[in-house]
């Protein structure tokens, strides 16, 4: 079922915010799909990385509800292939930050079992928390 | 050669085997790792947003330690800092690059660390141990090998952080050769495979372990398909995912054929015949010795 | 000798600030040797008439016009000089408007004093001016065309038809370039070999074309409608005589040759022997031996072809021939190379055997209808667009323009030959821009070729079947597709051919950001280059299809014709000359003239070739005896100018002597004046072709005569008329700075800076900084000055 989308000027603020935080000129995205085709996490994502770029470009804030930005693990596979040298991982990080800075942590330490915590390498735990908490 | 060495948190805990095998192997070819005396955690994943300067303080403090070591004569004119963990390598390199290329940021960071005796001058280079070996020369390394790892078919797993982003990658992002050259120097066979730089799932291992199971299985399957007996890595997180998570896949599915996972330095130690206890094989999750014994590489 | 000095008020622009009466007094009107006149507008008809009348009345032989910048009215006044019966090079312009009145509006007294020195310097120089003749150079009829692809062929034919004598050089053993490899051509699908063959034959038959194939450019010297090319013609090892004993093309040699090598004209999908004819439609249709693979040359183990040749024409002893070709114009038609897909390892080219280039596919498709084609294509074929184009990661951001269309063509031809094959084209955008192209695209869709909008990101090989699996997002449906193909064809982009570099280097041709040759103007001079007499034809200038290539090739021919139709052109007499009485033949200057204008004559003295000299003056410092000098900017004249620019300096005053290159820095300083941008009044600006002409002696002399600083301004090497000059300047500066060190003179007093036309603020900031610095420094003591320039001139 299609929904009708209206372009509103204030959507531009969201676009500008993400451009500023990520340092990426999202409008340069050519929608070539290279990022999506090579992303090792694509099967876990609800929308494709290229769609993230598209929606940010059009200022569609709903993109914040998607799972994709939490799944993106900054593996930089797309970064080294994007023909426009854009960095989707930075855009994902910017989106996460916008969300986290509104003080909603995506996960809580208490969720990890003691036993699991013991065997996990430090870098896994710290990395995880830096990506998922504010 | 004496070189300042940054271990990072994980090498002191879950990846002890990586550290001890590396230090002993390096020593065998005349490279002394001198551990930074007050290192602090690098932060693990590099911060990617533009307004996060404070997150670069931690890496920079480590560079100050290298400056001090030179000043105190602990090392001689050695502005390189070697790392083993690929993730630390990546994070430290990215921060360093930002400091080197952006005088303003460097100034701000230095201002923030006014309690430190010195300012960071921006001339420390972060290098991965593999690059040191490359510079040392794989031909030369091959000559030092006393027990060639004959008939061992090795899949070299780069993962993400050794190669990407391009600005800090130690080799070509799509067609890396350095680990393969290393493997050949040890007398083993380097197989060509597709998944060598495919992400293992990284920190999703904490909250989204299913993702990691899927990716790890994909990687291991590709190695098996291309005839590998074992996979080597230089990242403790990759090693954890490939080793521990792989064994969990086996727990759930007893028919599953596992491949042993080694740190590249463990194979190096084996070929250079360091003390067996320095190989740290007891820390490897998937039975590491059977394969080596079968090939008469371990008694 | 009598000098006339004309002070122009410029309708108040000058006289409102500068007290011209005062200047006139200073010039001493009573002096027998000078006539001084003030006029409201010297450039007006009345002003010019005044100049002419006064010159005739008083028998003036040197003229100084003190007015606006020479870049505005030098030409005007030179015209007036001619009317007055004077040599136009006996004229000097004192630039009072841009360099004085406009920038010092608020300090009229200082400006008036400065004006005196500016006029004095012009006068001093004028007194040493001498008549110079603009030699007329005859233009001949000779044109060199480099590259025998369709572009070079078309240009050559047009030129030859118009009566020009064309020498066409082709590196390969046959004409035709890439077009000789293509199967059919879009959008008409006529066969490439059929449409290019008659043209190639016309070249060889044309009485006005001399064709050299298997021939490479070694070096080209020259510019401005006079070029000398050195080329090397590689041997074919087959005797080429017009007698009866020539090769009969009996093919016996080929039949016995044991060598088998990939044939370039089949793009490696078929092999050839070491003795071979490149292609069935090769022109010239002649055998040659490839010495790199022929066993006779490799290890001496074979002689078979020579043994069977009934005509005895095989000659292993043939040597390369060096030819010198002198021409009036050059057309560069060196074409393109396809992007080397190995530079993008992710596509798997060179690693997976079923990933092929587009040129390989041209050959595969050409043979596809044969009963047993050399290369089969399987059931599923994928085309991947924009390989090596529109990709910042590998540094090619441009669109290669032809690859969308050739992929559509290759797909269509394949589909027509084998309708059962499934064909997919993975694209980001389809660019079907030409006449009939969109329609052709549509027809291919009708045939059932599927277009998927997405760029494949990942390529892997199925070990057993050698199929290639592509992973790609269909960006229109957002599906991720992962499918295996029997053949993957890369749509390689176009890059300037690597063999163009030798031409670029020797002719000093600029390249644009995309790496192709740069045209003189993208809109109005699309086939000219910045080097006079050198033109561009075909894809060497940028990616093009055949229709555009041919159109541009004809345009290049037309531009050559228009240029040579002038029959002769005036040579600027501002050139270097050697004072042969002083020259002792040491040859030190030879390497210091990049345009290669200096050579040694029979008497063992250096000599300047006027047709080649560009008048940069870079050679001057290379001569230890100061035997080389430059017309209109002689050593004597510059010494005199320097002295006059400083001679009114008072105890507490400061001077910065600015030497500005005529093309960039001088104009830039003019522009500051036009915008009334103020800067330090210490500056005295002297014009030179390039500051490389200012030898260490002159700099030292300036300091000895009271300059507090010397500022050299030139354009950066890139984009300069004299790209080599800055190196000379840097060396000159080093020499002076070494002396400074010994004499403890502050090195801040000598500045060399590079400017582009837009660097107005940069100039102002830098010159003001120098002023500030010298304000803080104590003046250089007299004895040190003496040591700096001990020679008394
Ligand atoms: C796969 C493919 C398919 C194509 N299909 C079509 C099509 O169907 N229709 C169409 O309109 N266009 C097509 N094109 C474009 C077409 O090939 C070009 O427009 C055309 O070949 C350009 O001709 P050129 O003479 O400029 O360059 P080239 O063909 O590259 O010729 C340049 C010549 O210069 C020679 N040369 C280079 N350097 C030197 C040197 N230093 N000294 C002496 N000689 C030198 C080279 O050996 C070469 O022979 C296709 C292109 C490709 C890659
Ligand atoms: S950086 Fe993120 S979006 Fe890009 S390939 Fe990796 S996981 Fe996917
Ligand atoms: S690869 Fe780059 S240009 Fe292509 S869709 Fe992704 S972000 Fe956009
Ligand atoms: S001499 Fe050379 S060209 Fe002749 S047959 Fe032998 S290999 Fe072939
Ligand atoms: S012509 Fe088509 S395939 Fe070639 S670069 Fe342009 S868009 Fe890409
Ligand atoms: S002035 Fe320039 S071009 Fe002329 S001879 Fe001297 S160096 Fe060569
Ligand atoms: S450097 Fe001077 S002396 Fe030597 S050959 Fe050239 S002009 Fe003559």
Radius of gyration of chain A: 16 Å
Q: How many beta-strand runs of chain B? A: 8
Largest interface: A-B, 39 and 45 residues
Q: Report on the biggest sheet of chain A.
A: none
Mean pLDDT of chain B: 93
Q: Identify low-pLDDT runs of chain B.
A: none
Strand content of chain B: 5-15%
The poorly predicted ranges of chain A are none
Count of DSSP strands of chain A: 0
Structural overview:
The complex is a heterotrimer of chains A (134), B (299) and C (793). By secondary structure, chain A is an all-alpha fold. Chain A has two domains: 94 residues, no CATH class; 29 residues, no CATH class. Chain A contains seven helices and no strands. The model of chain A has no long low-confidence stretch (mean pLDDT 87). Chain B is α/β, with parallel strands linked by helices. Chain B has two domains: 128 residues, Up-down Bundle (Glutathione S-transferase Yfyf (Class Pi), Chain A, domain 2); 149 residues, Rossmann fold. Chain B has 13 helices and eight strands. In chain B, strands 2-1-3-4 form a four-stranded parallel beta sheet, with helices on both faces. The longest helix of chain B has 17 residues. The model of chain B has no long low-confidence stretch (mean pLDDT 93). Chain C is of the alpha/beta class and 793 residues long. Chain C has six domains: 134 residues, 3-Layer(aba) Sandwich (Rossmann fold), CATH 3.40.50; 175 residues, FAD/NAD(P)-binding domain (3-Layer(bba) Sandwich), CATH 3.50.50; 68 residues, no CATH class; 159 residues, FAD/NAD(P)-binding domain (3-Layer(bba) Sandwich), CATH 3.50.50.60; 55 residues, Alpha-Beta Plaits; 161 residues, Rossmann fold (3-Layer(aba) Sandwich), CATH 3.40.50. Chain C is 30% helix and 22% strand. In chain C, helix 1 crosses helix 5, helix 2 crosses helix 3 and helix 12 packs parallel to helix 13. The mean pLDDT of chain C is 94. At the A-C interface, helix 2 of A face strand 25 of C. The site of one iron/sulfur cluster has 13 residues of chain C, from strand 21 and helix 12.
């Amino acid at each position: 079922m299609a929904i009708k989308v209206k372009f509103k000027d204030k959507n531009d603020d969201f676009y500008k915010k993400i451009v500023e935080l990520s340092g990426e000129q999202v409008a340069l995205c050519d929608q070539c799909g290279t990022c999506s085709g090579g992303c090792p996490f694509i099967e876990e994502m609800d929308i494709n990385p290229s769609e993230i770029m598209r929606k940010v470009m059009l200022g569609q804030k709903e993109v914040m509800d998607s799972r994709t930005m939490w799944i993106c693990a900054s593996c930089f596979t797309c970064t080294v292939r994007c023909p426009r040298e854009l960095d989707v991982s930075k855009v994902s990080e910017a989106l996460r930050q916008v969300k986290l800075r509104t003080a909603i942590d995506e996960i809580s330490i208490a969720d990890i079992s003691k036993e699991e915590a013991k065997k996990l390498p430090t870098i896994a735990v710290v990395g995880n928390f830096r990506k998922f908490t504010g | 050669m004496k070189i300042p060495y940054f271990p990072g948190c994980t090498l002191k805990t879950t990846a002890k085997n990586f550290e001890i095998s590396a230090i002993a192997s390096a020593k065998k070819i005349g490279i002394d790792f001198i551990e930074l005396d007050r290192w602090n955690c690098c932060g693990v994943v590099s911060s990617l947003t533009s307004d996060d300067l404070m997150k670069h303080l931690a890496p920079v403090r480590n560079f100050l330690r290298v400056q001090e070591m030179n000043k105190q004569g602990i090392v001689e004119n050695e502005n390189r800092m070697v790392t083993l963990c690929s993730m630390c390598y990546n994070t430290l390199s990215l921060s360093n690059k930002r400091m080197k290329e952006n005088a303003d940021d460097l100034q701000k960071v230095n201002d923030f660390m006014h309690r430190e005796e010195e300012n960071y001058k921006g001339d420390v280079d972060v290098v991965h141990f593999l690059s040191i070996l490359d510079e040392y020369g794989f031909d030369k390394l091959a000559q030092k090998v006393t027990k060639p790892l004959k008939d061992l078919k090795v899949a070299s797993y780069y993962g993400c952080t050794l190669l990407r982003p391009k600005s800090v990658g130690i080799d070509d992002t799509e067609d890396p050769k350095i680990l393969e050259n290393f493997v050949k120097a040890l007398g083993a066979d380097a197989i060509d495979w597709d998944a060598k730089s495919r992400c293992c799932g990284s920190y999703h291992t904490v909250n989204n372990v299913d993702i990691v199971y899927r990716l790890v299985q994909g990687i291991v399957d590709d190695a098996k398909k291309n005839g590998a007996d074992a996979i080597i890595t230089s990242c403790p997180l990759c090693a954890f995912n490939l080793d521990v998570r792989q064994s969990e896949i086996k727990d759930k599915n007893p028919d599953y054929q596992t491949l042993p996972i080694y740190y590249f330095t463990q194979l190096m130690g084996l070929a250079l015949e360091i003390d067996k206890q320095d190989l740290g094989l007891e820390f490897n999750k998937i039975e590491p010795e059977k394969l080596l014994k079968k090939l008469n590489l371990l008694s | 000798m009598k000098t006339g000095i004309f002070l122009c008020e410029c309708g108040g622009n000058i006289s409102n600030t500068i007290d011209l009466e005062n200047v006139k007094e200073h010039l001493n009107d009573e002096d027998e040797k000078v006539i001084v006149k003030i006029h409201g507008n010297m450039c007006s008809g009345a002003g010019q008439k005044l100049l002419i009348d006064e010159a005739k009345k008083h028998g003036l032989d040197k003229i100084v016009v003190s007015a606006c910048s020479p870049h505005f009215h030098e030409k005007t006044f030179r015209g007036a000089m001619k009317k007055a019966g004077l040599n136009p090079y006996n004229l000097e312009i004192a630039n009072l408007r841009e360099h004085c009145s406009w920038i010092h509006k608020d300090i009229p007294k200082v400006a008036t004093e400065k004006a005196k020195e500016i006029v004095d310097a012009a006068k001093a120089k004028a007194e040493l001016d001498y008549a110079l003749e603009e030699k007329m150079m005859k233009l001949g009829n000779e044109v060199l065309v480099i590259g025998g692809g369709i572009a070079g062929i078309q240009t050559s034919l047009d030129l030859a038809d118009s009566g020009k004598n064309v020498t066409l050089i082709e590196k390969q053993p046959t004409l035709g370039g890439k077009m000789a490899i293509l199967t059919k051509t879009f959008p008409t699908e006529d066969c490439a070999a059929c449409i290019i063959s008659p043209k190639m034959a016309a070249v060889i038959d044309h009485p006005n074309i001399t064709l050299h194939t298997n021939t490479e450019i070694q070096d080209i010297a020259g510019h401005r409608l006079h070029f000398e090319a050195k080329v090397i013609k590689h041997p074919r090892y087959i005797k080429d005589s017009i007698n009866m004993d020539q090769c009969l093309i009996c093919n016996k040699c080929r039949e016995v040759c044991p060598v088998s090598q990939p044939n370039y004209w089949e793009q490696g999908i078929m092999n050839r022997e070491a003795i071979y004819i490149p292609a069935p439609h090769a022109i010239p249709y002649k055998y040659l031996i490839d010495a790199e693979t022929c066993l006779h040359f490799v290890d001496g183990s074979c002689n078979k072809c020579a043994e069977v040749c009934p005509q005895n024409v095989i000659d292993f002893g043939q040597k390369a021939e060096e030819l010198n070709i002198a021409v009036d114009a050059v057309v560069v038609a060196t074409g393109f190379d396809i992007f080397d897909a190995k530079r993008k390892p992710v596509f798997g080219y060179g690693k997976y055997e079923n990933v092929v280039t587009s040129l390989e596919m041209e050959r595969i498709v050409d043979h596809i209808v044969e009963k047993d084609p050399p290369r089969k294509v399987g059931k599923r074929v994928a085309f991947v667009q924009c390989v090596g184009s529109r990709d910042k990661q590998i540094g090619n951001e441009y669109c290669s323009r032809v690859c969308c269309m050739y992929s559509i063509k290759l797909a269509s031809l394949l589909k027509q030959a084998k309708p059962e094959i499934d064909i997919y084209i993975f694209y980001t955008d389809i660019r079907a821009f030409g006449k009939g192209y969109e329609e052709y695209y549509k027809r291919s869709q009708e045939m059932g070729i599927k277009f998927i909008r997405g760029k494949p990101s990942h390529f892997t090989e199925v070990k057993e079947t050698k199929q290639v699996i592509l992973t790609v997002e269909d960006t229109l449906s957002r599906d991720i597709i992962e499918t295996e193909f029997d053949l993957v064809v890369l749509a390689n982009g176009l890059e300037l051919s690597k063999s163009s570099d030798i031409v670029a280097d020797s002719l000093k041709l600029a390249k644009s950001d995309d790496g192709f040759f740069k045209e003189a103007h993208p809109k109005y001079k699309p086939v000219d280059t910045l080097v006079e007499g050198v033109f561009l034809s075909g894809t060497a200038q940028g990616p093009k299809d055949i229709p555009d290539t041919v159109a541009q090739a004809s345009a290049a021919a037309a531009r050559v014709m228009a240029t040579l139709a002038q029959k002769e052109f005036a040579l600027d007499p501002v050139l270097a000359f050697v004072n042969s009485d002083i020259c002792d033949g040491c040859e030190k200057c030879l390497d210091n003239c990049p345009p290669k204008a200096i050579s040694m004559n029979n008497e063992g003295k250096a000599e300047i070739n006027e047709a080649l000299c560009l008048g940069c003056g870079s050679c001057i410092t290379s001569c230890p005896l100061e035997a080389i000098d430059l017309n209109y900017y002689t050593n004597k004249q510059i010494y005199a100018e320097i002295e006059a620019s400083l001679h009114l300096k008072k105890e507490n005053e400061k001077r910065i002597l600015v030497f500005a290159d005529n093309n960039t820095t001088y104009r830039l300083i003019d522009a500051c004046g036009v915008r009334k941008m103020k800067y330090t009044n210490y500056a005295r600006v002297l014009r030179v072709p390039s500051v490389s002409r200012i030898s260490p002696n002159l700099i030292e002399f300036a300091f000895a005569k009271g300059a507090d600083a010397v500022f050299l301004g030139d354009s950066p090497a890139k984009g300069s008329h004299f790209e080599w000059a800055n190196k000379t300047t840097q060396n000159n500066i080093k020499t002076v700075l070494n002396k400074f060190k010994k004499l403890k003179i502050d090195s801040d007093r000598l500045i060399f800076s590079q400017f582009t036309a837009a660097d107005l603020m940069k100039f102002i900031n830098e010159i003001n900084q120098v002023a500030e610095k010298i304000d803080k420094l104590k003046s250089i003591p007299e004895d040190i000055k003496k040591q700096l320039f001990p020679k008394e001139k």
